[in-house]
Amino acid sequence: MASDLDGTMATMVKHPHLLNLGSGTGGQGADGVRRFYAEQLIGQFFPPDAEFIPISRTTDANRLVDEVVIRFTHSQIISHLLPGVQPTGRRVTLALVVVVGLSEGKVSFEHIYWDQAGLLVQLGLLDGTGLPIDPSTGERLLALMNDSSLKPRSDERSHDR
Fold first, then answer.
1. In the chain, which end has fewer C-beta atoms inside a 10 angstrom radius, N or C?
2. How many of the other CB atoms lie within 10 Å of CB of 20?
3. Cα–chain-centroid distance for residue 40?
4. Could you report the per-residue pLDDT of 117-137, keeping only the tens digit for each?
5. Euclidean distance between CA atoms 129 and 21, whole angstroms
6. Which of 11, 44, 45, 46 is CA-nearest to residue 30?
7. CA gap 137, 122 in Å, rounded
8. How far is CA 136 from CA 23, 27, 84, 132, 147, in A?
C-alpha cells in the first residue's frame, strides 16, 4: 500500500466509495475515502509477513476483479479488516475478492469481500462449532488452484467487452 495519500486519491473520481463488506469499514465521497485510507489503512494495511497469492484477475472497460489469497500473522492492528480487535498472534489464510469500478480511467469504487466468520474462527475469536463456517476455505482454494488443470490460461484471465 503506497503511503502517498494524495497520489492514491488522484487515481480516483471526485466522488468515490470504498466498502469492505466483511467488516463494514470504508468511506463514501472523497473526504470519507481519504479519511478511511489515512486512519484505517496506511501504516496498518497488513502485517509485514503478509503474502499475497493471486488466483485470478478479470477486467473489462468498467471493472477489475481480483481474487487473491492472503496469508499473514495477526501481529498488529488491522482496522479495515478487524476493527477494534487487538493482535492475536495467530496465523491466517484468507481468500478475498476485490471489485474495482472504473470510470474514465479512474477508480470510482472498491468493494472488498471476504469470509469474516471464517477469519474470526481462525483468530480464536468465534467458536464455529455447529455453525456453517469453514475457516479453511482459503487453504482449500490454494490446493484446488495448485491442480494445473484448474489454472486459467493467460487468455482467460482478462478480456475486453
1. C
2. 23
3. 14
4. 999 999 999 999 999 999 999
5. 23
6. 11
7. 11
8. 19, 30, 24, 12, 17
> What residues of the chain score a pLDDT lower than 70?
1-3, 148-161
> What are the residues whose beta carbons fall under 8 Å from the beta carbon of 44, sequence distance 6 or more?
76, 77, 78, 79, 80
